[in-house]
Specification:
Chain lengths: 321, 321, 321, 321, 321
């Protein structure tokens, strides 16, 4: 499926036309064009770059891994890198999205199809009244979708933290499991910070120095996206604190449990050791009082039972058992 | 009960009139109007928005959860989000309060009725001499109430920290309970920081860029609110430190107690094990000195008692018992 | 005792006159007046406020607790809050001092008499040559005294830290005591930071924006106070580090001691358990070699003693005993 | 092998000529000269310094160890210090590279031959179209190579962290090994930060204040290098967090394992201690029920086996075994 | 020995003349005078202060302890405080050096003779070609010496950290010793930070606002000192990280060793307890199979030896022994 769109004077005129046609529209000032590439080859990119006059460095960055979210300003266009978030078997898998913004064209280049570009299209269609602002409008819808994705993720992380918190004071807690999950959670949070923190700078840069000057009426919408970015960042910081709280409490609990176990060991060891000592006494081959006599047996048994019970109640009262 | 108020030239003229009348007063420059909505529906908000010319984004934010405290500047009005604090069974439950500020109207929108707006009204009535400053005066009273709420909370948290501190060196301390409470406390503090730290920026923004310019005479009052915000922030930071102190000391105590328990175990184990070893000796089926002789019994008993007492005193002196 | 002073053209003219006379002098430009209030009532303050034209908010702050050190600028006067330090049974007890500074009057309001204002007076009398700078001179003497108090405190905390450091490697160390003291110390340091850190801003604000412009000749003296404030702040930060060092080392020591204790337990347990096992062997009711024979006894005893001694030397060599 | 190059008007004219010839070309404005020194002696440097008019302090810095990455601006030239990274038996070994930049000459001075300057030359040859920008072009290729080296290292550290993470939840984990490796890893990261963090300032300084003004067309290339530097810095910070996560989880695991071991000890100790207590009972020299009777033996054995099995199942069910 | 020097037009004219002569030279614009005081009395200082017109506050600071490194600007002179470093039995002993800088005189006041001023003189004599810059030249030599002292110290601390790192994975490690040394090291580092971190501000202030304007030719030399200061600061920060790494690893090791010890205890306890249980069985006074029979003895011994060996091999295989 070819993902292309042509807006003329704020009205959607065409969609799904071949990318080859783009060059026809780009030179018409009343047109705004969008098209999307998914995991393109070097050649695909080169032909696009030539057509739209994109800088070689920007094109190179599309294919290199490990970019950070950023805005690069070139003479005739902007190059933006952001990350969508995607979960793969419990571990965070960021999807790189490269964006070229020229005067009247927006090109999105997805690393793979884990980034659902169709949802961005739905978002555009939900606010067609702003389509007259051209590329600025398209870019806003795109960023809004990306940041909302981050927001959903941070909410998801939050509920994971809450689950762990509930597990913490649950007596059936399985330490190993809790450690594993809090480890994974923290790891995901570190990864997530790497893609979300630089977003502040990205959106801020776009608001302050966009060459296709953002229209005054669009400004609150970008401000709104920026606000969401801040919220995500603050929330992420809180989550760090909460996970820290979780871990420290868990550590303290382990210490506490070790103490409990040691007390139990002592108690039972004493309760078993004392009778052993007494029967040892009555097993001596010396004529102790009652040796070989029935009353010796009763005496031995009485002392043994009495001491064991006494120890049991003592430990019970101290709360060691 | 309808919560509306109309001030004309600094004098309270009417209250409790239907919200529908608001539009009549808003267009009169000598009027200042306030009204309050609690958990309004989308339709309620839309009608208000149309009447006062509020921006769609601001109205949308009212209904979305998880806003951060902030000030949004629109052409004709301000949109402010702050949080009141409310305790629900020991866990902090922030209540979102959305505020629209136009040239001569203040609209408060409460997420639910846990935010007691009547107390704000009392505060307004306590300083009617400033009513002549219109919306600025209403907004000040409102923010002052909100920030005082934060201040009360931080004082409450402080006394909770002190209680835990007292418990820490109490010998009857129940570790589990202390861990639970310090965990909850820290969690509440993290939540609280999220709603209180951005308040600095909120009040600062209002002081520096308010479109309905704050009157010079009102300025110290806003400065006063700002000061309280700073105090809350500093105090919250101190509390973090204090809770950190608490936890680290608690951890050290657990280590200390484990050592104490281990010493006790060793001591008692030795005191019991030694007699066992001796009676074992006298239980051998070999003709040891005194075997089958009464003096063998006395010897055995003497050695056993003497060694046990000696061990007991040794451990007592070392402070292990 | 009434604490009032009147300077005329830099010369102390009167002292101890009734506060009621102040209003006579305040209106004379060549006079500088000081008076002090200790724990005044609302009425006392109101009458003063009226006489000197003090702002209602400032007066209100005097009576509210939990102020932070700050400078408030009003049209006709400054309002300064600082804290003196006082130790009450080992825990820090800050004493609030409110200061009103008008063009030619300085009013000090002490929360209680733990702040020794007479020492400030002594300081003024020690540098009468600067009395010609009027209020600026009085204020300097006052701040200098306050900051020196902070400085003494931080030195005191420093020597407490050193005492704890000495105790740390002392073998007679009582862990419980050390924990208690390091806990208290850290708590005091947190409290102290709250009153000393904002002092930087206080003194800096006074130097940069004082309305009664500081005379060029007085400037180095204020700079000197500022310098002391910085020193206190830096020293406090070092102390935090030192206490952290102390605590972490203490924790490591506890772990180390636990290991030592465990080794001792193992060693002694083995030394006692082995003879028990051997006498058990010789206590069997089966015809083992030497059963019922004198040489059996000697054999048993020899093995038992030999093994015990061997174990003892082994553990001794491993350093476990 | 002599490493020298001469570009004239952006075209590589000569290479491998003796350093002595450099002075002939330096005075020709259309020439750009590069030459490389590896571990030069004081005399080598002095003669170069005289020829190119280098500042004595810069020359001195070349021979001193422990420089930090920096740019020094002298009247007629720049002096830059950066570090290449090289691994020597698992521990990071930074290689100092000193760079002199005059109007039309670039001198590279390597501390030793662990810095592979030939790879820089390859990079230059891969982008000859920019050779017309002279020294700026040479410097860019050099910095690009250095920063890419840092980038490779951080990727390498990342995969080491991942390996340790995989080892963490592996049951065959050898704690000692894991501690050693996480210790080494963290140590390398600390060292690496020292050479990589100041690179931000180095590149930024070059971009903003280069005396041979960077040509507008070269600017995006320097921006690209700067971007890589930021990426390395952010990634390094993430790695710190990940290693922290690793270590804290490892500590919690140790606590967990200690608890597990303690439970096992208790369980087995009880399972062995109980039969011992029972046979002790039946070993008494008193006429207990069944003493000397075959049914006494069956009774003893039955009780012993029953209790042992019961304990085993109890502990199994509690999960202690 | 009197330490005085007189330079006239950049040439050393006299040295070792009495301090009383200084006043003759100070008033000659082509002269630059230096003299040194070691632990002077109040009177010494007062007479100097009068002669050179030094501010009373600066003179007071010389005699007060606990200054922080700083530059104070007075109308006619600068007052600088820096610290030399000196080791006294393993603990850092900073030596205060007060410096007065007038238009053509430099006065150094040493707290005690642990600061070797003669080395500063040697440094001056090593760069006489800059003597024509007068006081600026003297001050540079002095600061250069002080900062190099800091640099030597940080190198020394670095090698101490490395020694501890080597000790960490050494099996003969004595925990107590390691704790003591890492404690001392960290303590010294905290102290050192207090005297070295403010040096950035000191040198920076001198470069930016020196009243005797630094000559353009001297500037790189001050920049060089500043660079060294930054290097010391960055290195100190790395050392903090390394010591943190050291400590955390040491803590993890202790946990690991505790686990090892616990496993050993379990193993040996079981190996001894099982034979005891078996001989207990054969010691019962009931007619068990083989009681009183030689084959009973062989059976008992066989079971006992077999079980013990079996346990030993099991534990060996699990790696617990």
């Amino acid at each position: 499926m070819v993902r292309t769109r042509l807006y003329r004077n704020g009205v959607l005129e065409k969609k799904g036309f071949p990318i080859a046609d783009v060059s026809d529209y780009v030179c018409q000032p009343d047109c705004t064009v969008w098209f999307d590439l998914c995991a393109p080859s070097q050649e695909d990119l080169d032909s696009i770059a030539e057509e739209l006059g994109l800088h070689a460095l920007a094109v190179e960055d599309v294919l290199n891994d490990h970019q950070r979210p950023k805005v690069d300003m070139y003479d005739s266009h902007l190059f933006i890198t952001v990350y969508g978030v995607h979960f793969d078997e419990g571990s965070l898998d960021p999807v790189e999205l490269s964006i070229f913004v020229t005067r009247n064209a927006l090109v999105t280049v997805r690393e793979n199809d884990h980034f659902e570009i169709d949802k961005v299209v739905e978002r555009w269609d939900a606010s067609t009244e702003m389509a007259k602002y051209g590329v600025t409008y398209l870019l806003h819808g795109l960023l809004d979708y990306v940041v909302d994705g981050h927001f959903d993720l941070v909410q998801d992380l939050d509920s994971q933290v809450e689950e762990l918190e509930d597990a913490l004071f649950d007596d059936n807690l399985r330490s190993r499991e809790l450690q594993r999950r809090s480890f994974d959670l923290r790891k995901n949070m570190v990864q997530f910070r790497r893609i979300t923190l630089p977003m502040r700078e990205v959106v801020n840069t776009l608001m302050r120095r966009e060459p296709n000057k953002i229209d005054r009426a669009m400004m609150p919408y970008y401000q709104d996206v920026y606000d969401h970015v801040l919220r995500v960042a603050e929330w992420t910081d809180s989550l760090r604190d909460l996970v820290g709280n979780l871990r420290e409490t868990h550590l303290a609990q382990q210490g506490f449990r070790l103490n409990e176990i040691m007390k139990q060991i002592t108690s039972w060891a004493a309760i078993i050791a004392v009778p052993t000592a007494i029967t040892g006494f009555y097993g001596q081959n010396v004529p102790y009082p009652g040796s070989g006599q029935p009353w010796g047996f009763w005496m031995s048994t009485a002392v043994l039972v009495a001491l064991s019970l006494w120890l049991y109640t003592v430990f019970k009262k101290k709360g060691w058992l």
